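Reading a protein record of the kind used here takes only a little practice. An example makes this concrete, so a full record is given next.
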Amino acid sequence: MEFKEFFQKMYGSDQVDPWSWQIKLALDDAFGNRLIRIPTGLGKTVGVLGAWLWNRFEKEEWSCPCRLVWCLPMRVLVEQTEMEVRNALKRLGIYWNGTGSHEGKVGVHVLMGGTDCGDWALYPEECAVLIGTQDMLLSRALNRGYAASRARWPMEFGLLNSDTLWIMDEVQLMDVGLATSFQLQAFRNDDDCEAKMLRPTFSWWMSATLQPDWFCTSPDTKDLMLGMPVSTIPAPERSGNLWDVRKTCRTISMKSAKELARSVHKAHVERDKSRSAPTLVVMNTVDRAVEVYQELLGNVASETLRLVHSRFRPSERESWREEFLNKAACTPGTDRIIVATQVIEAGVDMSSTLLFTELAPWSSLVQRFGRCARWGGAAQVVVVDFNADKPDDIKKALPYGPEELAAARTALSDLQDVSPKSLEEFEEAYANIRDLYPYEPSHLLLRHEIEELFDTSPDLSGADIDISRFIRSGDERDLYVFWVDIPPKEQPADSIQPTRKELCAVPFMRAREWLCGKTQRLAAGNRAWVWDWQEGVWRTARSTYLYPGQTVLVAANCGGYDTACGWSPASMKHVVSLAGQPVTDANKADSAQDDDSLSQTGWQTIAGHSLAVAEEARDIAQMLVSELAHIFHLAGRVHDIGKAYPDFQLQIQRARDSIFHARTDIAKAPKLYWNTRQRPRGLRHELASTLALFAILQRHDQNHEALLGPWKELLDAAGMTVAPVPEVQLPPTDIEREILDLDAEDFNLLLYLVCAHHGKIRLVWHPCPADQKHKDGKVWIRGVMDGATLPSIPLYTKEQELSEVRECCLDLAPSAAGLNPHTGLGWTERILNLLVTIGHFNMAWLEAIMRAADQRASTRVIKDPLLGGGQ
C-alpha cells in the first residue's frame, strides 16, 4: 500500500490528499527526534499519527517505538485528540477496544488521573496511544504520577521512558514543561549512547510557533540538537484557501471586563448573521473569563453563551465537543458566544469569524488568531489591551510578564492582517523576532535529580520530592479535587477512589486558601480528606497536605463547584457527586502499601500461579528483550515464595475437610476465605521472597560472586565474622541449582524483579509504622521478622518439573548499608550498582514487564494440578 492510500483510509476520504510535509514525515528513513513547525489548520494531528502508524504497521520499522504518547498543555484538548485517534484507528481496522486479543491492534488510553486509566500498562509489548496533559504525563515520566497511586509510579515511569514516541503538542503553552521534556530526551539519548536503552524512545516537538532557540537553554541538549530535522512548509508551498484568508486586526484599550462585555455583545449583534460563525472571546485568566461570562449573562441567553476553561470536571467538558467545539457547530449563521481562556489556543477544532482576545505573548496571540477563519474565508480580530495605561505593572500583566506583552504590543502596531501568510512574511522580516519568542525556563531538570526520583519511598513524614517546578511554574501547579456525598460527622469509606470524570484541577495555593484559609487546619464548615497510602485510609486534610499532584476528597455539601462556571471557591451550593466505577483489584492493590487484593481470586498454589506468571513474563520478554527471557522466566517461578510466610498463610481460612487444609503454599484464594482480622499490618510477601533467594546462596555457596566471594578478604580484614554454614548440608535441589548458576549481575536483577513486582519495595528497605508496634525486641521490616523461618514449598523448574525450595531462615542483614558478613553487599548498594550498569530507565522498564506479567496471570483462571486441577 502506498502512503497516500494509507493516509486516505485513515482520514476516511479518498478526496483528501496528504500535505507534502506529512508525506515527507512518514517516509523519512531516519526515525528519530524531530521539530515540527506547521501553521494551524494544516493537519499536525493526523500528520504525526499517520507517520507513526505507517512506520509501525506498514513498514514494520523496529526502530519505531510501540507506544505513542500525546502530551498536551491543556485538558480541553485531550478529549478531542482521543476522538480523532480512535476514529482513525477504527477506519484502519486496528483499534483495540479493550476486549479480545490485543495483538496487531492499538489501544487508546487517556491519562488524566483516577482509577479508570485503562490497562495500557499491562501490555508493554503491544501498540498503544496514550493521551494526556503535561501535568499527568510529565509527572509520570518523572516517577511521581499526579493523581496516581504510589505503587503505580515506577511501572508508568518505565513504560513512558522506553519504547515510546513522545508528541509534545503546542509546546508554546508548556512553560517549564517544555524544558523538562527536552532534558528527559537528552538523558535518554545519553543512555542510548552508553547501551542503556534496550528499546528506543524519541520526541517530536510541534507547534505553529515553535522556535529552535528554545532548545538551546541547556548544555545537556547540545548533542540532542545536532542535526535534528525540522518539518516546515517552504515558501513556494504556501498557497491555497488556508493561506489566502484575510483576518483584519486592530488593538483597542479597555479598563474592565464590563466594558469588554458591552463591546462583545454589540459586535455580536451587529455582525452579518448569515455569514458569521461563533464569536470567540479569549482571556488570559480563569477569573477574568468568568467575570466577562457573568457580565454577558445579563444580555445574552444562557443557551447561546458558553464558558470554557481548565477548572471544569471532565464530565462537564465531555459535552463541549459535541455541542459547540466542532466544525459542524461553526457554520455560518451560528448564534453563539464562547468565552474562553488559553485552553482554546491549541488544537481545538473550531473556527470563529469574530475574535476578541486579551493582549498576550506573541506565541499565544498567533495561536488565538488561528481560531479564526480556520477553514478559509475572512474574520475580524480585536486585541484588547487592559494594561495600556500601566504597561510595566507586573500584577496587571499576570500570568505573563510585562516584557512579553510589550513585545507583542509593538509587533501588533505594524500589522493590520494576521492571516497565516501575513504572519509568516512578517516574522521572516522582523528584526526583533527573538523578543517575540523568549524562553527562559525557571527550572532545569538535572541528571542527578531524575536519578534520585527513581526511589519512590516516602520520607518519614510521608512526603516526597516536589517535582511540580519541572511541570509548570507560578500558580498554575494543580492538585485534583473530587466531591462525594459524605454524611455529617462521618469519614469516607476506604473503598472510595475517584475516576477520571470526577477530578477537577485546582491551583494548589488557591485550594489551600479555599479549604484552610491562613491556618494549617481546615476552616470551619469545610470537610476534606487526602489518601494515606501507608494506612490505606482517608485522613483529614491539612494545608501542608495540599500540594501539586495531590488528590483531595471534599464533602459535596461544602460547595466549591458550579456546573456552569467550574471550580468556584465562593459557591456554597451542594455539588452533584458523580458515581464512579467500581475499583478494580489491581487499582485497589496499588492504593495502599499492605493491600493484597490481587491475591483474592480462585484457589491457586504458589507453584501454580508462579508458573503462569513465568510463562507470561517469558513471552513478553521474548518479544522485547529476548536476551533476558530466561531471567524473567525464573523470576516468575520464584516471585511469590514469600507467600509461604506463616503470617500470610494465616489470613486464608481453610475448611478442615478440604484439600487446602494442610497446605502451606496457597498463593490465592476466593475473597470470602480471607480473614481480615488476621491480616498482618505492613506485610509485604515479596520481601520474604527476596530474602529466601539470599538464603539459598547463604546455605549452598557463601563464596558465590553475588554473595561474599568478592568481599571475603575485606570482611576478614575488617574483623567481620562470617556466619558458619551448617555442617550437615543437603545438596541443592534443581530449582535452587538454577539460582546458584546465575552470575552476580543476573542474580541481582532476579532479586530486583522479585522484590519490586508490586512497586512497593524497591530501592530501600524501611520499616513501616506497623513494624514499630512489635514489642518482642526483634527487627521487623515490612511485616517480616529477622530470623523467621520460611517453610519448604514446591516450585516448578524451567523444564516444568516440581522441585523443592527447602525451609530457610530469613536474614534481614541486607537491609543495612554497606557490607555485612552475611550477604556481602547490602540491598541498596546492589541495586545502585545495577542501575549504573543497566540504567534507570531500563531498570524501571524491566520492572514494568514483570509487573504486567504478574497482573495478567492473576486475572486468568487456571487449573492448578497441585489442587487436583480444580478451583
Summary: Residues 593-866 form one domain. The mean pLDDT is 90.
